[in-house]
Design a protein that fits this description.
Radius of gyration: 17 Å
Structural class: mainly beta
Shape: globular
Number of helices: 3
Oligomer: single chain
Largest sheet: 5 strands, antiparallel
Strand content: 15-25%
Order of helices and strands: HEEEHEHEEEEEE
Distance between the termini: 34 Å
Number of strands: 10
Length: about 250
C-alpha cells in the first residue's frame, strides 16, 4: 500500500461484490443520524466456513473521524485465539478513512483518505502463517475454519487535522479501543478486554451477503457513552459457496 494507506491488491472481479446501494440500505437501520444501533444487530460472530470457500470483503463506507486500520484472521473451529498475538492478523485496509465523514470540509483532510467506497479484497488463506510464511497461499479457505475481522482504532499515523465541532483540538489522541468480531479480541481504552459487542452484523435478505458494521469508540468504560451507532466502518462479506454464520439476524 502507498503512503496514505491505499492498497495495491484490490480485487477487481465482480463476483461476491454487492451493489453499491447496499450501503444506503444498511443506513436505514445503522447510521450516524441514529443515537444507537438496535441491540438485536449487536453480536460477536466470526464467519464459519462450512465448505471450502472464497471470501471477498468490500468496504461500503463509514461515518467516523478516526483513521483506523482493519485486519482479518482465521483459525480452526474450536481453536479460538486467546489474544491478538495468537490470531496472526493479516492487514486488510491500513487506513479505513474514506474522506466522506459529514464534518470533513477541507481538501487537505479528504486527501488523507485511505480507501474508496466499494473497494474489495479477496482474502487469502496462508496455511503456514504461524511460521510467518506465505508458502502454500490460496484463495480457498478450507472447511472447518472461521474467519474474523478486527479494527484498531485510529492506528493509522496520518490523521485528519480539522477542527471538530466547537472544539479547537485536533484528533491526535491515541485511543486503544480494538473492535473484533470475536469478543475475546476486543479491548477497551485502558487495554483491558471487554464483553461488550463492538460489531453489528446481519445477513441481507436472501442471505447472499453479510454486513459487518463497527463501533470504534465507546468513550466510557461502562459502554454507556458515545454515539454507539455502530456505523464507523461498514463492510460487506461475500462467500462462494455461501457459508453459514450462526444466529445472525436478517435485514
Amino acid at each position: 500500500y502507498d503512503g496514505n494507506g491505499r492498497i495495491s491488491y484490490a480485487y477487481t472481479g465482480r463476483d461476491l461484490v454487492p451493489d453499491a446501494s447496499l450501503y444506503d440500505t444498511h443506513s436505514q437501520i445503522i447510521n450516524v443520524g441514529k443515537s444507537q444501533c438496535p441491540p438485536k444487530y449487536r453480536n460477536a460472530s466470526d464467519l464459519e466456513i462450512s465448505d471450502p470457500a472464497q471470501v471477498v470483503v468490500t468496504f461500503l463506507g463509514g461515518n467516523t473521524c478516526w483513521n483506523s486500520s482493519l485486519g482479518y484472521y482465521y483459525y480452526k473451529v474450536g481453536q479460538e485465539p486467546k489474544s491478538l498475538d495468537d490470531a496472526n492478523v493479516i492487514m486488510l485496509f491500513p487506513n479505513t478513512q474514506d474522506g466522506q465523514w459529514c464534518k470533513i470540509s477541507q481538501d487537505v483532510d479528504r486527501q488523507k483518505a485511505g480507501v474508496s467506497r466499494m473497494t474489495s479484497v479477496k482474502l487469502m488463506y496462508y496455511p503456514n502463517i504461524a511460521k510467518d510464511s506465505k508458502d502454500g497461499a490460496t484463495d480457498i479457505f478450507p472447511a472447518g475454519y472461521k474467519v474474523g475481522l478486527v479494527l484498531a482504532t485510529n492506528a493509522w499515523s496520518k490523521r485528519l487535522e480539522y477542527e471538530y465541532s466547537r472544539a479547537t483540538k485536533t484528533f491526535s489522541e491515541n485511543r486503544y479501543y480494538r473492535s473484533a468480531s470475536l469478543s475475546t479480541l476486543s479491548v477497551r481504552q485502558n487495554g483491558n478486554s471487554t464483553d461488550l459487542p463492538l460489531v453489528a452484523s446481519y445477513y441481507t435478505k436472501g442471505q447472499k451477503f453479510i454486513v459487518a458494521s463497527f463501533e470504534d469508540d465507546y468513550k466510557f468504560e461502562d459502554g454507556k457513552g458515545g454515539d454507539q451507532n455502530f456505523s464507523d466502518v461498514v463492510l460487506a462479506i461475500g462467500t462462494n459457496p455461501v457459508a453459514a454464520v450462526a444466529d445472525l439476524p436478517v435485514f
